[in-house]
Each structure stands twice: as C-alpha cells, then as structure tokens.
Design brief:
62 residues, mainly alpha, elongated
Amino acid sequence: MNKYTGFLKEVWEELGKVTWLNRKDVVSSTIAVSVVVILVAIYVSGVDVVLQAALRAILGGR
C-alpha cells in the first residue's frame, strides 16, 4: 500500500508543476478544434457522396 500512496503523492506533485491554460485559451482552442472537425466532416461527407455516385455509375446501381 505504501507504493500506491507514494505514487499518488508524486503524481500530485507533478500536477502542481504543470502550466495550465487560462480559460480564454481553452475556449479559443475548443472553438478552433470544433471548426476543424466540422470542416473535415463536411469534406469526408462530400467525398463519400462523390464516390457513391461514381460507384453507382460504374456498377450500374439503382
């Protein structure tokens, strides 16, 4: 049990050394990531639609 408490104590000390972002940076990063995810989703959806149409044309699907 002493190993675990020592480990947790070290983890807590290391967390104290971390430089945490402020709220403004977190919000702006979250917005940037959300915009990129939405753009990638739109792109992937567009590619999917084009490939489906191409396969239907090639294979004579309905």
